[in-house]
Design a protein that fits this description.
The chain is an alpha/beta fold. The chain is built from seven helices and five strands. The radius of gyration is 17 Å and the shape is elongated.
Length: about 150
């Protein structure tokens, strides 16, 4: 059974919702997760996991006819699968904090969500950033802050 997860942007939202994907995979679903083009390469390469298929919004994917529908509540789709429009959860539960609503609308605890996120590191790129781009040495204390990364526009 397919489970279509509608949370295409907000890198923090995508990371935070990994537990939701894992929950539905554990229930036997194949999670289909369309991602905006600006995030697709990074998310599909560095956050891929079994049972979750990341795709681009323009791709042809299962249950796509529901993706741009007016459905704002999670829905079982009579033999077709499950639709999870978690990007709209705060509209369904306006009194909940936005991020908590993504879980509360599904009746899932967000506790320990961080244990469901695994990043596939590219240590060679990390070394290039650290030594060549930033010019740091092994004894340098630093904080890396990226003020340019965010969801379009």
């Amino acid at each position: 059974m397919y489970c279509l997860l509608n949370q295409p942007a907000g890198l923090g939202d995508i990371i935070f919702c990994q537990k939701i994907a894992d929950y539905f995979v554990s229930k036997g679903c194949e999670v289909i997760w369309p991602i905006i083009d600006e995030y697709y390469d990074d998310v599909s390469q560095y956050m891929s996991k079994d049972g979750v298929s990341f795709c681009r919004l323009d791709d042809d994917f299962p249950l796509k006819k529901y993706y741009h529908s007016q459905i704002t509540h999670p829905a079982k789709l009579k033999g077709e699968g499950i639709y999870l429009p978690v990007r709209y959860a705060d509209l369904v539960l306006p009194d909940d904090p936005i991020m908590h609503a993504k879980y509360n609308v599904l009746g899932i605890s967000f506790e320990n969500w961080q244990h469901h996120f695994a990043l596939k590191r590219d240590k060679e790129k990390e070394k290039i950033l650290y030594y060549d781009v930033l010019g740091l040495s092994d004894d340098t204390e630093y904080a890396l802050i990226n003020k340019k990364y965010g969801s379009p526009p």
